[in-house]
């Protein structure tokens, strides 16, 4: 008998790339609100989602330094449990519900890539870095407070695709106000069988479920954001025409479920 949640299945079930949920996440996020052209934003939406006429072209770019754990305190294996991520969320509507659609997302860890595909996040491998803050004061660490400046970059296949700079100004009493829209993804797994390449084994619109979501020590301020042209990527089509707030916060949640919409 072979065991495991994902491949590779094995005699003891320890070799699988991703173990069964629940999956627990905690991390620091640097984010920037932006507006691209409404046409570019709408072009990324799958059937079932529509542009939100109240916020045309609005999106959020986030760079996150994550630590992950499943059963058995796997965060004590940091080479596997730590990873970094860059993602874009676009405002949309599912029926009459405001949602956030994720057209592009990059991670630097194979297990995070697999967990993302299971949830419907269209993850690709990339390199993501961001300024960190430490409790010991030094010119090498910004303060999480007024005037603190945090930068972030993302690259794919050796090409820089995004960079951001956030200058903090004010604390946010209710951090959850930064991310109010539920995230909608598309779970898509194609068939390789000849004659069925256009008939995917799975093609379903899903809404992410984040249990026990916490956003703490949130600060907002000025945000700067750029997307760059890169071979094999289409992120630059969403290049910001203008930016809004920048923010930095710590967040945590647990994943154990999702809702199938269509």
How are the secondary structure elements laid out?
Blueprint: E1 23-35, H1 38-43, E2 50-51, E3 58-69, H2 78-81, E4 82-94, E5 97-107, H3 110-119, E6 123-125, E7 127-130, E8 149-156, E9 159-171, E10 183-189, E11 202-208, E12 211-227, E13 242-255, E14 258-260
Parallel strand pairs: 5-6, 5-10
Antiparallel strand pairs: 1-3, 1-13, 2-4, 3-4, 4-5, 7-8, 8-9, 9-12, 10-11, 11-14, 12-13
Your description of this structure?
The chain has 262 residues and is mostly beta strands. It has a single domain (23-260), classed as Beta Barrel (Acetoacetate decarboxylase-like). Helix content is 8%, strand content 48%. It contains three helices and 14 strands. The chain has helices spanning 38-43, 78-81, 110-119; strands at residues 23-35, 50-51, 58-69, 82-94, 97-107, 123-125, 127-130, 149-156, 159-171, 183-189, 202-208, 211-227, 242-255, 258-260. Strands 1, 2, 3, 4, 5, 6, 7, 8, 9, 10, 11, 12, 13 and 14 form a 14-stranded mixed β-sheet that branches. The radius of gyration is 19 Å and the shape is globular. The two termini are 35 Å apart. The model has no long low-confidence stretch (mean pLDDT 97).
Concise synopsis of the structure shown:
This protein has 262 residues and is mainly beta. Helix content is 8%, strand content 48%.
Summary keywords:
single chain, 262 residues, mainly beta, Acetoacetate decarboxylase-like, 14-stranded mixed beta sheet, 3 helices, 8% helix, 48% strand, globular
Number of domains: 1
Low-confidence stretches: none
Q: How many distinct helices?
A: 3
Which fold name is given in CATH as the topology? Acetoacetate decarboxylase-like
What is the CA-CA span between the terminal residues? Answer: 35 Å
What is the string of helix and strand elements? EHEEHEEHEEEEEEEEE
Major sheet summary line: 14 strands, mixed
Radius of gyration: 19 Å
User: What share of the residues lie within helices?
Assistant: under 10%
The level 1 CATH classification is Mainly Beta
**Mean residue pLDDT:** 97
Number of extended strands: 14
What is the beta-strand fraction? over 45%
Write down the overall geometry: globular
């Amino acid at each position: 008998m072979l065991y495991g949640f994902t491949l590779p299945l094995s005699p003891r079930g320890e070799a699988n790339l991703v173990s069964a949920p629940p999956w627990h996440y905690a991390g620091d996020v640097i984010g920037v609100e932006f507006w691209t052209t409404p046409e570019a934003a709408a072009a990324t939406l799958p059937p079932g989602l529509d542009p939100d006429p109240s916020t045309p072209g609005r999106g959020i770019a986030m760079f996150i330094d994550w630590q992950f754990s499943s059963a058995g305190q796997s965060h004590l294996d940091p080479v596997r449990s730590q990873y970094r991520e860059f993602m874009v969320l676009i405002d949309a509507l599912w029926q009459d519900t405001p949602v956030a659609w994720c057209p592009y997302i990059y991670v630097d860890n194979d297990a995070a890539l697999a967990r993302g595909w299971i949830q419907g996040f269209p993850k690709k491998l990339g390199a993501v870095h961001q300024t960190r803050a430490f409790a010991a004061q030094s010119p090498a660490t910004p303060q999480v407070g007024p005037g603190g400046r945090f930068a972030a970059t993302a690259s794919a296949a050796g090409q820089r695709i995004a960079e951001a700079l956030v200058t903090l100004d004010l604390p946010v009493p209710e951090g959850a106000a930064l991310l109010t829209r539920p995230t909608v993804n598309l779970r898509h797994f194609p068939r390789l069988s000849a004659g069925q390449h256009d008939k995917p084994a799975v093609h379903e619109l899903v809404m992410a479920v984040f249990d026990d979501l916490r956003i703490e020590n949130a600060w907002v301020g000025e945000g700067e954001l750029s997307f760059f042209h890169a071979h094999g990527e289409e992120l630059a089509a969403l290049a910001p025409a203008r930016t809004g707030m920048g923010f930095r916060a710590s967040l945590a949640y647990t994943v154990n479920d999702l809702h199938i919409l269509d």
